[in-house]
Amino acid sequence: MANSPSSPSPVIRDVIAARVSRRELLKGGLASGALIAGSSFVGSLFAGETHAAAALSTLGFPELKRVYDKTHAAAEGYQTTIVARWGDPLAAGLSEFDGNKVASEEQEKRFGYNCDYIAFMPLPKGSVNSDHGLLCVNNEYISPNVMFPGMTEDDAGKTMTKEQVDLGLAAMGHSIVEVILKDGKWSIIEDSPLNRRITANTEMVVSGPVAGHALMQTSADATGSKVLGTSYNCSGGVTPWGTVLTCEEGVSDLFGGDPKKAPTADMLDRYGFDGSDIYGRGRFHDRFNIDKEPNEPNRFDWVVEIDPYDPQAKPVKRTALGRMSHEASTVVRNKDGRIVVYMGDDDYFEYMYRFVSAKPYDAANPASGKDLLDDGVLSVARFDADGTMSWLPLVHGQGKLTAENGFADQAEVLLKTRLAADAIGATPMDRPEDIETNPVTGRVYAVMTKNKKRDESKVNPANTRPENLWGHIVELIPPGGHSTDADHTADKYAWDLFVLCGNPKDAKVGATFHPDTSDNGWFVCPDNITFDPAGRLWVATDGANDFDLPDGVYGVDTEGAARGLPKLLFTCPHGAEATGPCFTPDGTTLFLSVQHPSEDAETLDKAQSLWPDFKDGQPPRPSVVAIRRKDGQPVGA
């Protein structure tokens, strides 16, 4: 039985011990609307009433049986198409891709490596067209051990040649490709003038409070307002004015030199810099050597805004959104017109953030969104045991965020976002990944992928399991009402634990999926999520391989009798993760990135799968897959 979306949903921890009756819960009888807190969680309110839920699930497809194989698999009645692969040409006149011969200059004109976040941007701009548009795809990192023959992951930083290093610079970043649906299959328009790559070599603008700050200035850019490139682009978001946000998720291992000798050693340490230089960039490019350019690291770990409809527009690093290992930047237009951006910092014991713009967005004037993300308030989440969550503003001069405590101005608060969040008592989470908003209910879902480092002494109300190897999903309930009535700018929310992941048959795990969850339906290590137009949650996983299971995509109802009941739709090939799920506006296509196939191989010659081409002598190729029903109806219906 679902609660009203406008009222708090109980976190059912030790309900019996708390002696709260079913009638009291239904009447909202908890004092001040507070939620119950304790040490355990049950995934549905009244399990005895929901065992018929499997038949009541809104997900109509026959569940896929888990397949962990050399190739991918989809549920019966569905078809898949490989839309874009690493190396596919994005300009006319390029030769057929050869993974053993691609040059760095040519890679700038080819689809990038290790695809991640996907945004489908309809064509023409401003339409809701679902059969023609732009795919905007992050290319997070490279996997040298399955790109270059004989190379291992551990020796890449020391043995990669300059040409290989430069290929890596060109293969990371972001790809924009025009795609069209014909006869039920998606394909790239290779000669589209809108196709382009944004790489670690692309010039970008720095905007917002940190632009021009002394800690952003380098020998190549004395103004502190221009940056060359982006890296580790993980998840992202789409703005109402038609731009894409791509997130830089931690660049600490891309720099050489000795961070302990840098003037900002404490800040570098808090952001994980150790001089490891895993791709050898610092051996050939001074900007990636902290000894030579100590401020260059400060110019990364931001959210980057891209206009995919204008190939001449420079990407912009929006510093008002904070500096962290950005996993997501999900955009919501609040009912008062202000823009809200939800963000996770994907690392152990890191935090969840929210940005609220100072000014509203005028939908009748899309140009009003141009610099809207440069002015607003960044906050960090604190979860309390009474089931309330508070957004704590990261504003210079408030509380401990003063010059006396190491924050000279607002720019330093943003440069040192993690340190600022530490100072004001945010809740350390189990690696916050994607955060998305249900378009039907207005509730917000935040993914905690896992945290093997949490021990019993560090358990907190929102992260209840020590050595959490399985992950969980937190449900945030803004006040104000259902759907667009929800107030995403409020200082306090209610919250719930939507599901604790893992094998429900293993009592030690403490998983809390719906009791009707099948042996194929439960999952571990949720990573990226999305919602279809009907408000159903779709979860892509990253880490199931550690349990000798395939990563894949699961549909889950969030409301009604089948709340918390997952069903498996798709599985990845060996060694790959599923990421970046994205629907067309009509819900008939689910795009998905299949990242790093066979990455678990020590070297390329030991790869268990050469997916998707299966050509001897050629490496596996990370790719974007389109999943559709064979009858053309919406996915999951």
UniProtKB/TrEMBL annotation:
Coiled-coil zones: none
Region (Disordered): 610-637
A matching Pfam family: PhoX
Compositional bias per record (Basic and acidic residues), positions renumbered to this chain: 628-637
Organism superkingdom: Bacteria
PROSITE patterns: TAT (PS51318)
Protein's recorded name: PhoX family phosphatase
Source organism of this protein record: Mesorhizobium captivum
Source species taxonomy: Bacteria, Pseudomonadati, Pseudomonadota, Alphaproteobacteria, Hyphomicrobiales
